[in-house]
From TrEMBL:
It comes from Clostridium chromiireducens. The lineage of its organism: Bacteria, Bacillati, Bacillota, Clostridia, Eubacteriales. PANTHER family: DTDP-D-GLUCOSE 4,6-DEHYDRATASE-RELATED. Keywords: Lyase, NAD. Its cofactor is NAD(+). The keyword Metal-binding does not apply. This is dTDP-glucose 4,6-dehydratase. Transmembrane segments: none annotated. Its EC number is 4.2.1.46.
């Protein structure tokens, strides 16, 4: 089996590359990544010489380059992780989100039409469903929840999902879509809540909590996301959407305080800062479908996962210190300097 993993130098794509190469010793992974600010070859350092691994530095919106790669590799499966993924950046500059997340998806789908494919899998997000109110803990996102987006990021991801559905219905491109809740774990870029807070606590820096810190996210350890996608690409039904989440809801403040306590520091590091524009209140996934149809269950609770994640950041300081000492420093100043 030959799998093209787009966005494989990023957080979840990188974890997926490691997961598949470890699990299937006869599968070939073709990693396609433009190496934007979020892509990092260090994440792939331990597999770069593996004979089952190959890398192409390609922008998925570059039709010619994508077609050339398809002609050379003749892949069986595409798993599309490549995206601009950070909500805050989409509020600053929406355009690149449309180019990569929408046009990039369309180019990949066109390549699948032209060259044929066994399966195209779109890695989507629970953010396409919008948000849930804090005072209705009985409500969850199901696959039937209407798309109702809040940020340019989530709007671009929802647009991509609609294109995937349209290419399935109109052109029979055999596709599946997964919509997962917030991931955390190794190789998570430090602009996102959990790695940002770990790095700041370790550096005794202020911990910028948006608004009141009461917003709720449904956290999933990244390896559990990888196992769900593995099941979907092998056993999922084409044309279907699968929600992925493990009922690990926490307020942002709870997450931040857990990290502070695990690292033995003081809650005085917390600084309440201006809220995110259009900030979604609560995400919560109902994973009944993927459990009952494919037998998927997560294996890592939040309490275990956050300990493993903190340990990984302690053991792999050079990975994230290289990031935060580079162009990230000016990003941080721009986003948080006068917030
Ligand atoms: P990330 O930002 O860490 O990684 C994205 C990767 O895509 C990077 O390696 C980057 O270089 C690459 N990339 C960006 N633009 C590209 C382009 N035009 N062509 C080729 N490569 C390009 O993102 P992530 O957090 O790993 O998210 C991966 C996917 O999972 C995204 O599609 C995201 O929407 C989705 N998702 C993320 C989460 C989460 O919690 N992080 C949850 C659900 C779904
Ligand atoms: O739900 C899935 C989504 O999860 C993915 O589709 C996105 O790609 C991914 O980035 C993530 O989006 P969020 O916006 O939920 O994640 P983020 O880590 O940016 O923020 C999590 C929460 O923490 C959110 O309520 C905003 C808050 N936050 C974030 C940062 C970076 C803070 O309070 N302070 C911060 O400095």
């Amino acid at each position: 089996m030959k799998i093209v993993v787009t966005g494989g130098a990023g957080f979840i794509g990188g974890n997926f590359v490691h997961y598949i190469l470890k699990k299937y010793n006869d599968y070939k992974i073709i990693c396609v990544d433009a190496l934007t600010y979020a892509g990092n070859m260090e994440t792939l350092a331990s597999v770069k010489d593996n004979s089952n691994f190959n890398f192409y530095k390609i922008d998925i919106a570059d039709r010619e380059a994508v077609y050339e790669m398809f002609e050379k590799e003749n892949p069986d499966i595409i798993v599309n992780f490549a995206a601009e993924s950070h909500v805050d950046r989409s509020i600053e500059n929406p355009e690149i989100f449309l180019k990569t997340n929408v046009i990039g998806t369309q180019v990949l789908l066109d390549a699948c039409r032209k060259y044929g494919i066994k399966r195209y899998h779109q890695v989507s997000t629970d953010e396409v469903y919008g948000d849930l109110p804090l005072d209705r803990p009985d409500l969850f996102f199901t696959e039937e929840t209407p798309l109702h987006t809040s940020s340019p990021y989530s709007a671009s991801k929802a647009s991509a999902d609609l294109l995937v559905g349209a290419y399935y219905r109109t052109f029979n491109v055999p596709s599946t879509i997964s919509r997962c809740s917030n991931n955390y774990g190794p190789y998570h870029f430090p602009e996102k809540l959990i790695p940002l807070m770990i790095a700041n606590v370790l550096n005794d820096k202020e911990l910028p909590v948006y608004g009141s810190g009461e917003n709720v996210r449904d956290w999933l350890y990244v390896e559990d996301h990888c196992s769900a996608i593995d099941l979907i690409i092998h056993n999922g039904k084409v044309g279907e959407v699968y929600n992925i989440g493990g009922h690990n809801e926490r307020t942002n403040l709870e997450v931040v305080k857990t990290i502070i306590h695990e690292l033995g520091k003081s809650e005085e590091l917390i600084k309440y800062v201006g809220d995110r524009k259009g900030h979604d209140m609560r995400y919560a996934i109902d994973p009944t479908k993927i459990h009952s149809e494919l037998g998927w269950l997560p294996t890592t609770t939040f309490d275990e996962g956050i300990k493993k994640t903190i340990k990984w950041y302690l053991d792999n300081k050079s990975w994230w210190e290289n990031i935060i000492s580079g162009e990230y420093a000016s990003y941080y100043e721009k986003m948080y300097g006068s917030r």
